[in-house]
Amino acid sequence: MLPRFYYHPRMLGYDFGPRHPLKPERLRRTIELLEALGQTEFLDPGPDAREDVLRVHDLEFVDAVALIGSGMAPSQGFESKFGFGSLDNPSFPGVYEASLAYSAGTAAAARDVLGGAPLAFNISGGLHHAHRNKASGFCVFDDPAIALHILRERFDRVAYVDIDLHHGDGVQWMFYDDPNVLTCSIHQEGSRFFPGTGWVEESGPVFTSVNAPLQSGTTGDVWLEAFERIVMDALRRFQPQAIVLQMGTDAHEYDPLGGLRLTAQEWLEAVVRVRDFGVPIVAVGGGGYCLTTVPRMWVAACLTLSGLEVPQNVPEPLGTRWGMPRFFDDDLPEPRGSGAAYAQRAIDFYLNSVAGFIPNPH
User: Fold this and answer.
1) What is the pTM for the complete model shown?
2) Which structural domains are found in the chain, ordered by start?
3) Angle formed at CA 76 by CA 71 and CA 80, multiple of 5 degrees
4) Phi then psi dihedrals of residue 155, to 5 deg
């Protein structure tokens, strides 16, 4: 069985509507697939995470989300002040309670690791774009930041590793000047891509912000090399005692919102490398907008982190019904090596201008 896996149907209430790309169906299918594989012990974290949300968000913002979700926003411009009302973040009834629900799962997983568990999950989490006083990029409350804050109660040094297609900007800015929190993000570069941040130069005043931006069209072999030479190198230098791993799946070639060209198995290799680093992990979900990739990749990651074998085939009738008969992809994107020159520049900048300054306990 998966250890310490948090889920409750109330998390499916985080729903921006049928035309929005962040669909609760992603989570529902993931849970159904886990159940088909015999993984049926899910833990209810409870509905309330307000005090944990206030660890990283301003009280004014949290109260504003409650007003917006209850339909009692006091003025027409009130929603936009706090990041709502756009196509990315339309408001919906109950947004406050739904946001507390996924935040509660991540907070509970972090407390498990705080108490000595080597691994805990909240796949409904990973909403890494939310800022201290503003919703952004489909994200209302920044649950990975909450997890990092909780872990710091015990661990002197913690790290955040983000393998989502998009830069983990919300988490980065919350800990940008903290020498005890390393934030690492590998993502599609943002010259014309949301959120427009995550450049290699964003290393922070204490060199604990590490970014690996890659061009659209980059294939998984190049992505993995950049992940090893930047993100894993930073972890080895920083030596964190616990990690929050954000597992957005939207770097996959089939994802409709991005341009990176990974296979499921190449993406999963990054999960393996973080697992094998050998420290406790809080594992959360994140982006991913193709319903034939997200469930199988998240389930494969959960099994892999837990030391369980990933089967070759998706159980029937789910494989046929969902059009994803196998967990891994049959064909590698061609041509291999795409994006290598841009990635090498990121690697060189990291090695020459960031790596040597990362705080090291020794």
Assistant:
1) 0.98
2) 9-357 (3.40.800.20)
3) 90
4) -95, 135
